[in-house]
Amino acid sequence: DPHGRFTIDPQFGIIRTKKQLDHETQSVVVLTIQSQLGNSPIYSSTQVNISVIDVNDNPPVFLSKSDKVTIAHTQPPGTAVYIAHAEDKDSGLNGAIKYSITSQQSNAFSIDPNLGVVNLTRTVFADEQQEYTLHVAAEDCGSPPLTSLLILDSLAVKIVILDINDNRPSFTSLPLSYVMEDAEVGFLVHHITAKDPDEGRNGQVTYHILSGNENKAFVLDKITGLLTTAQLLDREIRERYSLTVMAVDDGSPALSATQVLTIVVLDVNDETPLFMKQLYETTVRENQDPGEFVIKVEAVDRDAGLNSLLRYEILPGTGYEKFRMNSDSGEVVTTASLDRETQEVFSIKGNSCRDLGSPSRSSTAQLYLTVLDENDHNPLFAKTQYQIFVREDLEEGSAVLDLLASDEDDGLNGEVTYSLIDDTFGAFAINSVTGSIVTTKTLDRETKSQYTFRAVASDCSTHLPRSTTVTLCGLTVLIRDVNDNIPKFEQSYYIASVWEGQSPKTDIIQVFATDLDSGLNGETEYSILSGNENATFLIDSTQGILATNTVLDHENTSSYRETASSHLLVLLASDHGTPSLNSTATVLITVLDVNDNPPLFSSPEHHIHVKESIPVGSHITEVSANDCDAGANAEITYAIISGNDRGHFHLDGKTGSVHLMKKLDYEDTMKFTLIIQAT
Predict the structure, then answer these.
(1) For the whole prediction, is pTM greater than 0.90?
(2) Within a domain: residue 1?
(3) Is there a single domain that holds both residue 34 and residue 76?
(4) Top-confidence residue, 609 or 304
């Protein structure tokens, strides 16, 4: 009695229980009893066998609360599929156990109450029901038997119909999944699930990615079927993945099924709209009605949905009010008629597009627009009338005027050519490109002093319907005189006469010299160049009137005269040009005689000696008188007025020659005194 369950009365030897006994712990107790008499060292011993009689105080107990059995669905009815076993610590009938099925999902099973053998009562099919759960109760045969609540223990037996691997896994998860493109690595994208009606390993499914994951964007847990991201996604690079997923069971041979799982990467507004060009260049014609198409700008946003839906606008800036942009299409049209001459180039820096994402993203581009010219302006001369003066001594080909006409149009429409209309008498031509007017021949003011003609400025437009436009410009070319003509006397030799004895300032003759030049170059001044000794004459420098300056004396025999009665003057006609030109003329002035001088003998007396023997008719002498007058006034007649009473002599009245008419006789008359008169 190591546990001290019993006590013994040392005097009377009565064995009593000291502790509660448990039949199930020890059903037989063998006590060794020793007896001793007094203090005698002698003792004796005996064994007392104590049987602990069972009391039904223990319910039957299953060794496990649940169990699992697999059977093939081909087993026939009556087949034992399971043996239930419970233990009861009691003994005898208290430990005898009866088995029963207290609840079952089907009538496919029965149990032997004594043996606990579970048998099939009919054929079962895994396709109908894979598992059956039987609650088996064990009850002892004690009296009274323990109730189920107290002593009845139950066993949950799960009977699994052992399947032949004749079913493929079938996917139960959807073949479509969505994931945001900004999902972090490891984000759960999809839970792939498949079911296999088979049991056991035949129904154990694992998952694998066969294709579509070449860039290893996803990881699939083959056991759980959880598909997660293995790297950051970018919808703009790839917006859809088609993964061929396989579900395979663990049967032998294994059966599998595949599913194409489409993973759509949902857009996040992480892309900025981008214009196809940063600079759009285009042209538009001027003078078109508002609404004229200009250009269509286009931007792309790699996002999707509202994140990629773009709205266009022109931001405020210089000239933007002349254009309107369709917010949906990006088409730009004019809002007003454009005038190239007012503004040829529009540089609009604020073409903006923004998406409808939240928050919105936007970008800008520049529009460079050139207004095309239309021939809507005439060439205009700086002046419509020109009056110019040119020197007549210009060389042929000299420029006299550079005309300039401007045309506000552009290109050929604004390129100006020049031409002349009206007759220039072959004197002028114009350079069609430069507008320079040049002489084409030597000018002569004295021939033509003024030219009036018109110049035409034309543009070079070749576009219809507008025709080439022209502008006229009137030109008057006045030829400035050059002193290239000498004054010319009407005659190179003048003959004039004047009576002697006239008072000073008596007009003799008026000479005329003409100078084809004009102005000072044509103003003639007269003077006496030579022959006017003693300032006998004077000439009016302006009118050319030659007059006496002193009283003339026909009989004056000064050495300057060719003849006693004439004066030879050289007159000079000079213009006032620079340098001055001149010419001369000769004037022969005859001083007309007035009979104011008597004939005068060279000597008042003549002494002639002759021989008395000279024959009659001989020339004795010749008397001569001189009369300073001229003409008839100077014609002298000679006559013997005395001393020739007897007629010895004869006097020629014209020549003054004296001839002997009678024979002389010295002894008769030795001296004759003849008085001869010159008349």
Answers:
(1) no
(2) no
(3) no
(4) 609
